[in-house]
Amino acid sequence: MGKNIWINAGETSGDLHGGKLMEAISSIAPATTFCGMGGPEMRSKGLDTVLRVEDLSVMGFTEVLGKLFDIFKMLKQIKNELTRRRPDAVILIDAPEFNFRVAKYAYNLGIPVYYYISPKLWAWRTGRAKFIAKHVTRLFSILPFEVEFYKQFNMDIDYIGNPLVDVINWPSIDHIQPQKNRIGILPGSRKKEIEALMPQFALAASIMTKTNPELEFHCIQAPGISQDQLRALWTCSVPLKIHSPENRYEFMRGCTMLIAASGTVTLESALVGTPTLITYQLSKLTFFLGTKFVKVPYVGLPNLIMGREVFPELLQEDANGDVVAQRALAWLNTPGKLAAIRKDLETLRTKVGAPGAANRAAKLIIEDLSK
């Protein structure tokens, strides 16, 4: 009889990785069944959906406050379902603020907990490493620099490589050349970040087209975000073409440059090989608290992996249309700079591990559960 696994993704990027992991586990142990919290990718792989990831798309201290009632309701439902279903294992994907509570529920029920895509505790709140050491059976890391951090807490951590290496189809994109004047816009996957950044990107576009009317602006939709939402926030007369997320890597590769919200997408753009301006805006309180607690020199994953600023980071006041336009035009007016960044990004691919991250994690999980 197959195992029943509860799998919990707290955001859209986690849904993508969760789908791949479910597929990998099913290929090793076809009788495995999955239930829990996920999005379209995990649902397409057979998830018995108790909760939808689309209903938990928040970020930041103050942003979370507005959804606290809903969050606690979801957590209570998960606790009840874990108690009722008693799955053979719980797999958590990133989203520590939410998933740590799920880890505690599972631990108290004696259910083994696997953390796929280890929480970024090295960035802040390092004291919570002790929580993981107690409540999590096994930790899977997808970022090479995390291993040393976790080892200091005597944790069982496996570096499995980055699952994005499997998601991106290199042979289908490597031949694609950037199209002159094509600018890609990636405003994020969370409603709050899109509301903050999209009008600034529109302002940047209006400034940039005054200098170069030939520029074209293209936006790639995140899963779960409608075209109407994006168009309503594009507050300028510059034409904007919106593309669905399906073939985003081919499209990103074909852009001269990208302007993106900080997050997994900036690692995707780096692996694809397209120069990217990283932007982010949080509420003033969230950002203030972040400056007190965050312990890393960069917010962008490509910069953290490379140990230097490969992509400029335009945060808070700098994530406004004027500054974004200035930085983008400086790149566009210096094609040699863009070519140098592309060359630099080739070395990043070698740092994120070989293909097969989901397969390696799946094998370790199934081996554990078969003991």
Overall morphology: globular
The computed structural class is alpha/beta
CATH H-level superfamily of the largest domain: Glycogen Phosphorylase B
Count of domains:
2
SS elements, strand count: 13
Q: Identify the CATH architecture of the largest domain.
A: 3-Layer(aba) Sandwich
Strand order of the largest sheet: 3-2-1-4-5-6-7
> Whole-Å distance between the termini?
15 Å
**CATH topology label of the largest domain:** Rossmann fold
Q: Helical stretch count?
A: 18
Q: Give the CATH class of the largest domain.
A: Alpha Beta
How would you state the average pLDDT, rounded? 89
State the helicity in percent bands: 40-55%
Organism: Halodesulfovibrio aestuarii
Catalytic activity: a lipid X + a UDP-2-N,3-O-bis[(3R)-3-hydroxyacyl]-alpha-D-glucosamine = a lipid A disaccharide + UDP + H(+)
EC number: 2.4.1.182
GO molecular function: lipid-A-disaccharide synthase activity
